[in-house]
Amino acid sequence: MDRPHVVAISGSRRSGSYTRRSLRLALEAAADAGARTDLLDLRELDLPPFDPDAAEPDRVRTLKRRVREADGALLGTPVYHGSYASTLKDALDYCGRDEFRDTTVGLLAVAGGGSYASTLDHLRVVVRTVHGWTVPHQVGIRNAADYFEGEELVDDGLARRVERLGREVAANADVEPAARTEVHAPGER
After folding, report:
1. Which of 12, 76, 92, 148 has the most C-beta neighbours closer than 10 Å?
2. Count of CB atoms within 10 A of residue 178's CB?
3. In the 8-state DSSP scheme, what is residue 150?
4. Rounded distance between C-alpha atoms, residue 175 and residue 104, angstroms
5. CA distance readout (Å), 149 to 21, 26, 32
């Protein structure tokens, strides 16, 4: 793979979103690591609520195509009630194995308060279910308003963690998943 393609999906609808700001920083680091990058801002895409019986509008087909064409993805969400935003949930419900199979995924959760662990756990389960591969490094930001000035993440330690997430997704976007290798029980062939 010459240049991996990394897409970030921002699950925040908030104007001035800390999630979106963080994903932009991760994408900059992925680009510095040699990746082509793309931000899918779900606020702008404005997907309808997922309805499996409804025809998919063009914006849903656009979402699915852009995710499917990526080698790596960054999923970013604000934390709501210990889980991820319904905006991201709808996007992930539209997508599935065709979009995420063997895709390297990095996770980022931004909390206005103190807890983000269950949000990252929920996202990891979703990614595994659609056959994506999460990198071990993940980022949670609690009390986000304390760490941003304008568009900038001003806490150096958090900024380094977000940048590392972008670099790790870019660096591992071409990793061949071990599951592609047949595994046999002892004595079985």
Report:
1. 76
2. 8
3. T
4. 8
5. 11, 17, 23
Q: Can you read off the two tokens belonging to residue 101?
A: 């199979």
| Sign for the pseudo-dihedral over CA of 102, 30, 109, 76 | negative
Question: pTM score, two decimals?
Answer: 0.91
Question: pLDDT tens digit string along 139-151?
Answer: 999 999 999 998 8
Indicate the length of the chain as a whole number: 189
SS3 122: helix
Q: Where are the alpha helices (DSSP H) in the chain?
A: 18-32, 42-45, 58-68, 86-94, 97-100, 117-129, 156-171
Place of tokens 């870019």: 170
pLDDT band at 187 (very low <50, low <70, confident <90, very high): low
d(CA 178, CA 56): 34
The CATH class of 5-180 is: alpha beta
As a whole number of angstroms, the longest Cα–Cα distance in the chain is 61
Domain boundaries, the chain: 5-180
